[in-house]
């Protein structure tokens, strides 16, 4: 038979997937109640196949349009039926790239990302992206091959207990025992990954199970006793939260990534405008509330705005929505927001009260929580209960005016990294998807690009994974082929996973990568400057001094267009040149100064009260106004 082209497969699968997937902002109850029969995807007839054939047919029945992976001995049986499938397989260069690509795909689209690896080292190379997806609640299914069942436990060639290894970093995982289980296990894995609090699910399949004959039948009956995510909050808790919001004098809406996961951004804006309460959005929630909105104080935490950090610290009421009181937000926990009553809403009951006591715990999907809060607040206001927040806003506006985000131009005439990122956001605009690595460039990208729309900012927040940006940008571009996707990476992060640019070049995935090349492991160097007496131990990467590697030549060797920019005068035209190229990946080597630092900053382990606006500059708060 004539094999369909990748483009044909991708287009047909994308159409099927678009029809099959519920919208990201669909009702959460409908999402949770989804069955393995996917609307828009024809229910397959029963067939005699191998376990591998059953696996591929299950993926098709689930509406999967793309998987990222690398074949190997134990998983090889699955690659034969995959050859003729409507599921597009993207051959990555490293399994870590497959996992991060699946994560980027999931974060950009709201659908389940899928990655595949073989047993042993193939599977263990997925551990980092699985942990990354677990920390950031990303719906992902990782499928791994395993040695044949008789060899399990014998230290066979390329054997690793990936189920045991990933037990602490998966929402659930499976070791398939026989071929008949495959459709049910796949359906359960996708249901678990995408409902409740999303997360990664591992499916480990022994080679002999993939080779065994079986009957494929769809849809299977799910068997998940006890798995009943609570979607609708308790009415009494909602009413109590609304009552507190009606009497608070210094309230703050503390918004986390769960609001994005629930598709609750429109409701969030309505709630904020109804109440007039200030909003802070965490690193994982940027874009959930428009940066330009007058009620948005910015990002809280270690490198948040002064107004956002102060707002949480001095609040008398914190309404946390899909957030987890992470240490990077709270600073020293025993000094965090000492006078605040806490309303904590989350779909995962284990998060509520884990780090900070919740005076009003609310378990439920953020969309339902917000919608019901709107109704309850409206009732309070109809009864004449509306707080006067004028004094609170006067304080916050004064802080925004006195301590805006900004930066100093380098005194040595080198290119400012903040200027590069600021101009990138201004030229590219708010419709693009921005994907950041981890470190200084990640923080500058969170500070100096304005995120006006949801799902336009992707990053590794919880695990802080260097090497995330390039493969995640690849996955995002595959999931959103019509969107402009920019990866913003550091020279350290970029050298961990840049081989996936070869994948992008060969697969026709025209991502754009801005390498913020300061010649160092920048954030580590910043800490060495501030806390280790400027003793720069093992942070100079040599990308400045020796130009090793030469990122332009490296980009060209990987099949990309390579550009370099070293002066402020060339920034705009270099970005515009990259924007004009849409048929190949583009890499820009922005050679920037090594001494720039990320400010504001709350040093690790200190109180948010000790926030520094710049080096040696602590904000002056008028305590008499509080």
Write the layout of secondary structure elements.
Blueprint: H1 6-20, H2 28-32, E1 47-50, H3 51-61, E2 66-69, H4 76-82, E3 88-91, H5 95-109, E4 113-117, H6 121-124, H7 127-135, E5 140-146, H8 162-166, E6 172-175, H9 182-194, E7 200-206, H10 207-211, E8 213-216, H11 235-247, E9 251-255, H12 258-261, H13 265-275, E10 279-281, E11 296-298, H14 306-313, E12 317-321, H15 327-330, E13 341-346, E14 360-363, H16 366-382, H17 390-402, H18 417-428, E15 433-436, H19 440-448, E16 457-458, H20 469-479, E17 485-490, H21 491-497, H22 500-507, E18 512-517, H23 522-531, H24 551-557, E19 561-565, H25 571-579, E20 586-591
Parallel strand pairs: 2-3, 2-4, 4-5, 5-7, 6-7, 9-10, 9-12, 10-11, 12-13, 13-14, 15-16, 15-17, 17-18, 18-20, 19-20
Antiparallel strand pairs: 1-8
Helix pairs in contact: 3-4, 3-9, 5-7, 5-20, 11-16, 13-16, 14-17, 18-19, 18-25
Features:
single chain; 626 residues; alpha/beta; six-stranded parallel β-sheet; 20 strands
Q: What would you note in describing this structure?
A:
- With 626 residues, this protein is of the alpha/beta class.
- Helix content is 37%, strand content 15%.
- The strands form four sheets. It has a six-stranded parallel beta sheet with strand order 3-2-4-5-7-6, with helices on both faces. Strands 11-10-9-12-13-14 form a six-stranded parallel beta sheet, sandwiched between helices.
- The longest helix has 17 residues, at 366-382.
- It is globular.
């Amino acid at each position: 038979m004539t094999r369909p082209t990748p483009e044909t497969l991708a287009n047909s699968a994308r159409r099927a997937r678009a029809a099959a997937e519920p919208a990201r902002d669909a009702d959460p109850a409908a999402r949770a109640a989804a069955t393995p029969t996917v609307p828009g995807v024809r229910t397959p007839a029963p067939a005699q196949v191998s376990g591998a054939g059953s696996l591929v047919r299950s993926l098709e029945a689930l509406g999967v349009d793309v998987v990222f992976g690398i074949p190997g001995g134990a998983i090889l049986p699955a690659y034969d039926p995959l050859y003729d499938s409507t599921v597009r397989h993207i051959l990555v260069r490293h399994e870590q790239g497959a996992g991060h690509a699946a994560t980027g795909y999931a974060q950009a689209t709201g659908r389940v990302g899928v990655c595949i690896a073989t047993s042993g080292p193939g599977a263990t190379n997925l551990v980092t992206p699985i942990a990354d997806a677990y920390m950031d609640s990303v719906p992902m299914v990782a499928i791994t091959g395993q040695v044949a069942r008789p060899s399990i436990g014998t230290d066979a060639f390329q054997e690793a207990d990936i189920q045991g290894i990933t037990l602490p970093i998966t929402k659930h995982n499976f070791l398939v025992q026989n071929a008949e289980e495959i459709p049910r296990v796949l359906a359960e894995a996708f249901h678990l990954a995408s409902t409740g609090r999303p997360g990664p699910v591992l499916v480990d399949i022994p080679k002999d199970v993939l080779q065994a004959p079986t009957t494929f039948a769809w849809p299977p009956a799910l068997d998940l006793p006890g798995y009943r995510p609570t979607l609708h909050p308790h009415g009494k808790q909602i009413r109590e939260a609304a009552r507190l919001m009606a009497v608070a004098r210094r309230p703050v809406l503390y918004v986390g990534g769960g609001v994005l996961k629930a598709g609750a951004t429109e409701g969030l804006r309505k709630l904020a405008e109804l109440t007039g309460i200030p909003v802070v959005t965490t690193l994982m929630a940027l874009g959930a509330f428009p940066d330009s909105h007058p009620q948005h104080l910015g990002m809280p935490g270690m490198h948040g705005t002064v107004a956002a950090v102060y707002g949480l610290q001095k609040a008398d009421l914190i309404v946390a929505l899909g957030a987890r009181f992470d240490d990077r937000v709270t600073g020293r926990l025993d000094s965090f927001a000492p006078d605040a009553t806490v309303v904590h809403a989350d779909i995962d009951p284990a998060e509520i009260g884990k780090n900070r006591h919740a005076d009003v715990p609310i378990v439920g999907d953020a969309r339902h929580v917000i919608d019901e809060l709107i109704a309850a607040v409206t009732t309070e206001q109809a009864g004449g209960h509306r707080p006067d927040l004028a004094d609170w806003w006067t304080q916050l506006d004064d802080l925004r005016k006195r301590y805006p985000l900004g930066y100093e131009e380098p005194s040595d005439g080198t290119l400012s990294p903040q200027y590069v990122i600021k101009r990138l956001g201004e030229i590219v605009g708010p419709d693009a998807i921005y994907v950041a690595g981890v470190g200084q460039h990640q923080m500058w990208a969170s500070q100096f690009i304005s995120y006006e729309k949801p799902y336009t900012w992707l990053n590794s927040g919880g695990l802080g994974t260097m090497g995330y940006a390039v493969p995640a940008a690849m996955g995002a571009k595959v999931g959103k082929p019509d969107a402009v996707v920019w990866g913003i990476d550091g020279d350290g992060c970029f050298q961990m996973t840049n081989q996936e640019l070869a994948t992008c070049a060969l697969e026709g995935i025209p991502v754009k990568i801005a390498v913020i090349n300061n010649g160092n492991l920048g954030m580590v160097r910043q800490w060495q400057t501030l806390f280790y007496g400027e003793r720069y131990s093992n942070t100079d990467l040599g990308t400045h001094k020796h130009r090793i590697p030469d990122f332009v030549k490296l980009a060209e060797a990987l099949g990309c267009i390579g550009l370099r920019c070293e002066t402020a005068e060339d920034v705009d035209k270099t970005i515009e040149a990259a924007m004009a190229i849409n048929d190949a990946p583009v890499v820009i080597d922005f050679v920037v100064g090594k001494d720039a630092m990320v400010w504001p900053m709350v040093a690790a382990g200190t109180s948010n009260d000790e926030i520094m606006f710049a080096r040696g500059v602590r904000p002056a708060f008028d305590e008499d106004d509080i």
